């Protein structure tokens, strides 16, 4: 019997490690601001005159989607699930005085400033024309945005619940609950995939409405990649949990039958 037990123990240990890594990745991706990044070819010149006002608009409570997206385009913005950030010059008097225009600006210290999306921002409706309240609600984008906010929490919640069941299983020295843990991890993986899908679709639809300017490149950042890696890890953990529990159960039943015979 020990040979079998070792195999299951190994599978369970690997599954737990995968589960732990995917939870860490998921938490890191929710907490960081690099889901999507914009790169401007000419950031400094763009901002020089208008830096202050862009920043004030970007931060203001009633910044609509169009206002802050334009600022993201112009100032090397990055967007997370919770926050949006732009890179602006440190102080407002950093451009060179008119007489010395051939000198490069001395103060090109750039600083990254972030502002959080409030809960009401997360659930606010998106409009068919971003920034225009009269254009009607864009249901697709509104629901994609709400889902991308909720799904990561559902995913982490399912995995934590799975971990609790796993701990109970260890306490009871039984492998039956591992099936439940596996199923929960599988559902968590589906949520993570859903999150990634919603995010990509949301960005795609936004850029159809507000196309990127000529000199701006947009790309998915590393926070987004962490979420992408997290999903397959969750599925692998789920498969191992379910396999270990089921195979162990079969062998146990066979052994019983053999003993009875």
TrEMBL record:
Pfam family, one: Claudin_2
Record membrane topology: Multi-pass membrane protein
Subcellular location: Membrane
Membrane spanning stretches: 149-171, 183-202, 222-245
InterPro entries assigned: CLDN1 (IPR042356), PMP22/EMP/MP20/Claudin (IPR004031)
Keyword Secreted: no
Gene3D superfamilies documented for this protein: 1.20.140.150
Signal peptide extent: none
Name of this protein: CLDN1 protein
Source species taxonomy: Eukaryota, Metazoa, Chordata, Craniata, Vertebrata
